[in-house]
Write a structure and sequence with these properties.
504 residues, alpha/beta, 38% helix
């Protein structure tokens, strides 16, 4: 079942798309498992339903992905680049439709959805330019050999993306994997499969072989787990919670399959007394409240120097109450609802725990609006770094403000976390800014700004925020096998039983 409003949007450019299922070899394959029902977070009305994918599809997946990857690899790098660029063009042409689908199916504000669709187009444009530049090197080895390095496709990679930014993470993962010459089995969250199916279909329409990108509609603990256990895959890329990430890494390790993991964070946003406090306050709000706090890099720990703590936090709480919260389909709102009931209940639970542990709500706001959809008002907690609200990911528009004394204290608190995805510092002291950036253990760090990322720059975490990098040149390396080739050039090489031809 598909809500009529979504059905009409999809059929503007995919008229045969009438039911939700997995996209395999260019065709929709309906699931046979448990029924999955998805709801609008604005009013809890039923949006669409479909059945969990059947593990029996795995044999077909292996076959079609292998065949498509072989066809893809046989094309020249320039040909692959032109196709990826055409994908970007198609996405730009259909940007309005895609944004509306993303808004309705992921409960993301329409203005945010429009921006993310255009960034997906940019991702394919960026990696289109890399396809013919993923070349190796010649190494001047101390023997008579010519030694060179080749970067070759892995084959088929399995990617699992989350519900908080489905079309964005779809493009973020697919583009580098395809640019490196691979086929992909993509499993978006069971809560948000539609936009990923549409992007995969556009990749086919742009000229890529059918079966190069296959999208699985279903649960992670069923079909996702079976793909890791059975499918002919060379790598797993997962974006999601640390708990699920550990399970996936363990399952993949049982088959010696490497992983790239991006597992969220509890990022420290550090405000010194000498910062431009107006800009810092605006940056702090964007860092945590953008996307209703449902972002892995959210600045969910706000570290403020004690000399300005009370004033800054009070002003932040007052400004936060002016943020417009409401129906994501309205272009006038700033943030929408929490994506789904389970996550909404988790945020409510963490708010209750925070207050039980002694945290207070700045501005005396009422954070939970349970009678108006899955809505949480922007909330500023005042607490300390030992509280669960400061150590565990809430993934909602909730920030905990924590005072610090000096630079050493700020760095200590920032690093007192199991996570290490991102962080920021606000100060007018240039030397201090670079010292703090070097000292905080995080994969991405901003100075006098927050939350800017780009496909050209490497992204990933330290500690329990995961490992591997999912963008920039680093992502192409992640999706490549490295081969060292040795060519003997001597007329009469002298062989050693230990090492082959002897040096010199």
């Amino acid at each position: 079942m598909i809500n009529n409003s979504i059905q009409s949007l999809i059929q503007n450019f995919l008229p045969d798309f009438t039911e939700i299922g997995s996209l395999i070899n260019g065709e929709i394959v309906l699931g046979t498992g448990e029924e999955i029902q998805l709801y609008r977070a604005h009013d809890a009305s039923l949006l669409l339903s479909f059945r969990d994918a059947d593990p029996s599809i795995i044999a077909t997946l292996d076959q079609v992905a292998h065949q498509a990857q072989q066809q893809w690899q046989q094309q020249t790098a320039a040909q692959r680049g032109r196709i990826l660029f055409q994908v970007a063009q198609l996405i730009r042409q259909q940007a309005e439709y895609l944004a509306q689908v993303e808004c309705l199916t992921s409960n993301k504000p329409i203005n945010d959805a429009k921006g993310e669709v255009l960034r997906v187009a940019e991702m394919f444009e960026y990696y289109a330019g890399w396809t013919d530049k993923l070349h190796g090197e010649v190494i001047p080895v101390p023997t008579s050999h010519l030694n060179y390095v080749r970067y070759e496709p892995i084959g088929t990679v399995f990617q699992i993306t989350p519900w908080n930014a489905p079309i964005f993470t779809c493009g973020w993962q697919l583009a580098p994997a395809l640019a490196a010459g691979n086929a992909v089995i993509l499993k978006p969250s069971e809560l948000t499969p539609v936009s990923s199916i549409l992007v995969a279909k556009m990749i086919e329409l742009a000229g890529a072989p059918k079966g190069l990108v296959n999208v699985i509609a279903g649960y992670g603990h069923t079909i996702g787990q079976e793909i890791i256990a059975q499918a002919d895959i060379g790598k797993v890329c997962f974006v999601g919670s640390p708990q699920t990430g550990r399970h996936i890494a363990s399952a993949a390790a049982a088959r010696c399959i490497p992983c790239v993991l991006e597992l969220g964070g509890k990022s420290a946003n550090i405000i010194f007394e000498d910062a431009n406090l107006d800009q810092a306050r605006q940056g702090a709000m964007a860092a945590i409240f953008g996307g209703a706090g449902q972002s892995c890099v959210s600045g969910s720990r706000l570290l403020v120097q004690d000399s300005i703590f009370e004033t800054f936090v009070a002003q932040l709480a007052t400004a936060s109450q002016k943020i417009k919260v409401g129906n994501p389909e309205s272009p006038s709102i700033d943030i929408g609802p929490i994506n789904n009931r389970k996550q909404f209940e988790h945020v409510c639970h963490m708010l209750n725990i925070a207050q039980e542990e002694g945290a207070t709500i700045a501005g005396n706001t009422q954070p939970i609006l349970s009678d108006e959809g899955f809505y949480i008002q922007p909330t500023v907690l005042v607490g300390n770094n030992e509280m669960r609200c400061a150590q565990e990911e809430i993934f909602g528009p909730v920030v905990v403000a924590i005072p610090f004394k000096d630079e050493e204290d700020a760095v200590r608190i920032a690093n007192q976390s199991n996570f290490g995805l991102a962080g920021a510092v606000w100060t007018n002291d240039v030397a201090r800014a670079h010292r703090v950036a070097a000292s905080v253990k995080a994969g991405t760090f901003w100075i006098n700004s927050y939350k800017t990322i780009h496909v050209s720059s490497p992204f990933g975490g330290y500690k329990q925020s995961g490992y591997g990098r999912s963008s920039g040149l680093d992502a192409l390396r992640e999706y490549s096998e490295v081969k060292s080739v040795w060519v003997e050039t001597a007329n009469q090489p002298t062989f050693s039983f230990k090492y082959g031809p002897s040096e010199g």
